[in-house]
C-alpha cells in the first residue's frame, strides 16, 4: 500500500500541489485525472522521485519512504514514460537487462532469463535483439513496461499511456494493464482520457488546478 | 622520377613526425575534451567558470602563438619542454578545448528523459553517462569531431615554428635547397593521402554506429 500524506510541491512561489492525501491499495489501479496544467504529471514526478516534494510524506506499507533519494536495494516505483524513453543505443533485451545487472547486481544469465520471460509475456519475444527504432509505438511501450517490471517494483506508474499511441491501440493498453492487475501489480495511471480512466480504474483521483 | 625517389625518404620521415603528433594529440585530447565537457555542463559554478576560461583562451588565441608560448615562452619562467613534448602539450590542450565544445553540444542534445528514465531505474550518474549518454553522444558528434580530426592533420604542420621536422618542413627544406617545386607538390599529395585515409576511417566509424537511430 502506498500512502501520500499532506504532499506539497511548489515551483518557486507557485504552489502546484497543496496538502494532497492519497492512498493506493495493493493490486489496485488508481487513475489520476484532471485538466491539463492541474499538476497530474507533477504529482506523478513526485511519486516517482523525479521531483523533490516541499512537504508531506510517503509511506509504503506503513514505512516511511523518500522517493527522491531512494537508492535502497528494493525497487518501489517503476515508471513508464509518456514517450517511453527507451535507450536507443541498446537492443530491447539490453534495455531490460541493463538496470537489473548494474543496480540489482543480477548475473547476466539471470537477468537475460528474466527479461526473456517478460518479453514472452508481453508478446515481444521475437523482438529481443531489435533496436527501439525498429519497433512500433505500442511495442516500444511494452518494452518500457518490461524494463520497469524487470526491476520488480511494488507500484508501476504510467504517464499518459495512451497519448503517444494510435487511438485504436487504447484497448490494447487497457488489456495490458488489466493483465498486470490480474498478476497483482499495483498501478498508478496519469491520464487526461476519462473514458480510458473509467474503464480501468478501481479508484479515480481528480487533480484540480490549485487556486492560490 | 629519380629526384622524387631521392627526396622521398626525408619527406616520409617528416610524414612520420606529422603522424606521431596527429595520433598522440588525438589520444590525449579526445578523453581530455570529454572530461572538460562534463565539467562544462556540471552544476559546480567555479569549475564551469574555470573551464569556460580555458576554452576561451584556447579558442581565442592562435595555435601558433600557443606553440611559441609553450616552447619559447615558458622556459623564461623556468618551465622547459623538449620540442616534441612542447608540441604535444600545446596541441592536446588546444584540441581538447575544441572537442570539449563539440562534446558539450552533444551532451546537451541528449533528451532529459533519458537521464530521467535512467534515474527511475536507479542507475548511478556514472552508469548513466557511460552506458546511455556517451554512446549516444559519440554518434551525434562524429561528423564534427571528424572535421577537427582532418584539421589536425594539417594543423600539425605548425610545429615547424619550433623546429620540429615534420612533413611540410621536409618539403620546404628540399625546395629551398634544390630550387624546384616538386617537393612541395609531393608534400601536398602526401597530405591529401593522409586526409583521404582519415576520411575513410571516419566514414567506417560512422557506419559502425549506424546500427541504431
Please describe what this structure looks like:
Chain A: It holds the Pfam family ABC_tran. Chain A: Belongs to the ABC transporter superfamily. Chain A: GO terms for molecular function: ATP binding. The complex is a heterodimer of chains A (212) and B (213). Chain A has 2 domains: 1-76 and 153-192 and 199-212, Rossmann fold; 87-152, no CATH class. The two termini of chain A are 31 Å apart. In chain A, 31% of the residues lie in helices and 25% in strands. A 5-stranded parallel sheet of chain A has the order 6-7-8-3-9, with helices on both faces. Chain A has a 4-stranded antiparallel sheet with strand order 2-1-4-5, with helices on one face. Chain A is built from 6 helices and 9 strands. In chain A, β1 and β2 (14-24) form a beta hairpin. The mean pLDDT of chain A is 90. Chain A has helices at residues 40-47, 92-102, 108-121, 137-149, 170-182, 194-200, and strands at residues 2-11, 14-24, 29-33, 55-60, 63-65, 77-80, 155-159, 186-190, 203-206. Chain A has 212 residues and is an alpha/beta fold. Chain B is an all-alpha fold and 213 residues long. Chain B has a single domain, classed as MetI-like (MetI-like fold, Orthogonal Bundle). Helix content of chain B is 80%, strand content 0%. Chain B is built from 8 helices and no strands. Chain B has helices spanning 2-40, 45-60, 63-73, 83-108, 112-120, 125-155, 167-178, 182-208. The longest helix of chain B has 39 residues, at 2-40. Chain B is flat and about 70 Å long. The mean pLDDT of chain B is 94. At the A-B interface, β6 and α2 of A face α5 and α6 of B.
